[in-house]
Amino acid sequence: MTANDLFFQRKQAAAVLKHGVLMRYPPVFATMTGSTSDGGRVVYLDGYAGPGRYEPEGDETIGAPGSPLLAVRSATTIAQWSRDLHCIFIERNPQYAENLRRVLNEEANAGLNFDVLKGDVQDQLNEALALVGKSPLLTFLDPFGTALPYEAMTEQLMGRDSDLKTEVLLNLNLEMVWRIGGLLTGKESDPERTKSGSSATLERIDAFLGGDWWRETFTAARESKEPGSAARAAHTVATEFCRRVLAATGFQSFSVPIRRRPHHPPLFLLILFYRHQAAPYQFNEAVSGANAEWREHFRQADLSEDLERRRNEEDPDLFGEDLIVTMSEQEANSIEAKLEDQWVATITTNITTLLDKTSALRIEASFADIYGKTLGLAREKHLRRAWDQLYDAGLVLKRDKAQKIRRLTINRVI
Ligand SMILES: C[S@@+](CC[C@H](N)C(=O)[O-])C[C@H]1O[C@@H](n2cnc3c(N)ncnc32)[C@H](O)[C@@H]1O
After folding, report:
1. Was domain 3-291 assigned CATH 3.40.50.150?
2. Taking Cα atoms as reference points, which of 47, 68, 44, 75 lies closest to residue 137?
3. What are 3-30's pLDDT values in tens digits?
4. Does 104 sit in the ligand 1 pocket, CB within 6 Å?
5. In a mutational test of the pocket of ligand 1, which residue from 144, 172, 175 has the highest number of ligand atoms less than 8 Å from its CB?
6. Beta bridge partners of 171
7. For 72-101, what is each residue's pLDDT tens digit?
8. Domain boundaries, the chain
């Protein structure tokens, strides 16, 4: 059994954040882009779909939903708002593809449109794009290792006519970059380096990242060889990758680090490539909600471990469990409230600093600077609080509560 086989046997902690984003963002993309498309049709293309569900864990009779099930559930929800989210799935593993068809047939409401294409994403891409036609398209690429070759992503997906609404969500495996990058910087005697497959492995990354430029970038960034430098070097490579995509296609990017545990180095970067100015703002809303869910996931995991440890003590205090659960919830609420207060304070400072240089701040255009370090953590409700505090302090004009906040401009009191 390979590590990849094991992937679907246990929903990874990293999948909590990824799936949290996938539950939230595609419906927003479909709602926004479908308003002008024929029959409200929008396409979600999942290039590395998997079997649809994870294997059941523990007492579960049914496993956690994988990305395809989340997509068809979104499609069902947004059908109420006259949006037809057509889902296309590509899966290379024949058994997974079969399983996926079965799971989707069991789950999807009658009348829901989906296609499962069995085979390599690279070979199936033209057929998938023919099914997409001119509809708005959100593509999700979530491979185990390297994804589509660079040209396929930048020319076939991002190269769609610029009038067509197109976004790509790539789950970039940083751990793979730093492990394979180790082939470049390891000792001559390192067995990894002399493995016959090592040059083929490096070439696979070259194809994905669009050339061998990353080898030098990685090696230079890895120079210090300090602990954590490989993870940082992989991050540098990812940043340069996004810069190159921007230069080649005009697609900007918004990256979300995905960690196994808080304070661990990110294992993945979930990157949204977009053209439309509203995209990063909406994506941030999705990421912030997913991040809250992710923090709660770890609290629950720590709590279960704690309870389990207490049960195994010589003199277990089982009656205290309810109290421990309640205290953990109260503590979590207080930690969350403190975090939110800190975010609001940071946003307030950022707005004040920005308004030192200009008298008017368009939210949609400047939202990354407005959120600053809280990007991906804070969202609209925190921005609203910050604005209201600044208004109460007499520093900015009142916000128009009848309008969508992302379309507003914060005006300084002269
Ligand atoms: C990380 S898993 C996908 C997990 C899924 N997105 C989820 O969240 O539930 C990657 C999947 O891509 C499939 N795969 C790998 N290489 C592929 C390729 N070249 N074309 C299509 N599918 C591929 C694997 O069989 C595996 O099922």
Report:
1. yes
2. 44
3. 565 555 555 667 889 999 999 999 999 9
4. no
5. 144
6. 270
7. 999 999 988 888 999 999 999 999 999 999
8. 3-291, 293-411
